[in-house]
Every structure is written in C-alpha cells, then in structure tokens.
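[PROTEIN RECORD]
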Amino acid sequence: MPVRFAPSSSGCAGAISYPTNPAADLELPKLEKRLPRHVLNAREAELVLAQPDVLTPMGLRDRALMEMLYSTGMRRMEVAALKLYDVDPDRRLVFVRLGKGKKDRMVPIGNALCHG
C-alpha cells in the first residue's frame, strides 16, 4: 500500500498516513525459560545461612528470612508481604496470600523456623 498525503485536521495537506502493520496481530513465540546453571549444594547453603550474626536482632531477623526463603521456596515478595498472623508455628504452616497467579496457599515450614 503506497504512502499518501492526507489533509490534516486544519484542512492543510501534508499529514502522512501510514498503512497498518499486517504483523501487529501476530503472536510472537514465547521465550524459553531456563533454570539457573548453578544451584547451591548443601555445604554452600549452610555457609550462606551461617552469615548473619544471630546474637543481634538484625542478624536474627536476617537468618529467619533466609531460612524462610530457602526452606519453603517462597518468593521474596511473598515473604515480604507476610504478616505475623500468617505464620502458624503449632501446625508448622505459613499462609501465603495472593502468591504467584494471585492464589492463596499453605506452605509447610521446618523446625528451624518454628523453634529457632
């Protein structure tokens, strides 16, 4: 389709009208999702979890957050959105509100998080 000049809203010629893009409605192929190349082994994970100084309030908080991320597989935004009442240490469960896919779910937690 050739490019043509069309009158503008002021009535003057000169505005350019472009043809529509025939590829605009095509669905692009999805990009491949790959797992990370390197995953921590058990020793490396223990070294990372041992970094916070649990004798300080900030270190204890950091250790609890790291344990929550590592042992449950929760996403960082899910952990950041947790409220105190979302954790049930007696039943060893965490209630994740509006996680991936905007769905709620219950996630089991281990002894380290329940009894610190």
User: Anything to note?
Assistant: The radius of gyration is 27 Å. The helical segments are 42-49, 57-72, 76-80, 111-115.
